Amino acid sequence: MIVKLREVELLCSQGNTIAGAARQAGMTEQTFYRWRKEYGGMNTADAKRMKELEKENARLKRPVAEEVLAKQGKDYDNKVRPHSSLGGRPPAPQSILLTA
């Protein structure tokens, strides 16, 4: 990504438009602007370190998310189930039943 950004900047300095330079580098103009916003002031080592940190962050979040989902599943299992005569459907809300 950093290399592609530098390539577009080089092509622009040679007189190309940003849209044309981005196309020559094999990306859309929108991708160029998005990458420039995210990675513009970084060098290659910084970008690699950021990617490593993002992966580590995702790895650390996974067990927490699994625990939350497991707790939500237990909460669901402990709720009152609808009566079997309703065919598995929950009863209608009281606001619907009391309308006149």
Keywords:
2 domains, 5 helices, 100 residues, single chain, 68% helix, 0% strand, mainly alpha
Walk me through the structure.
- The chain is built from five helices and no strands.
- With 100 residues, it is mainly α.
- The chain has two domains: 1-41; 45-76.
- The chain is elongated.
- It starts with a helix and ends with a helix.
Short account of what is shown:
The protein has 100 residues and is mainly alpha-helical.
Contiguous helical run count: 5
Strand content: under 5%
Number of domains: 2
Number of β-strand runs:
0
Largest sheet: none
Low-confidence stretches: none
Topology as a string of helices (H) and strands (E): HHHHH
Which helices and strands appear, and what pairs or packs with what?
Elements (H helix, E strand, L loop, with lengths): L1 H12 L4 H7 L4 H11 L4 H34 L16 H4 L3
Helix pairs in contact: 1-2, 1-3
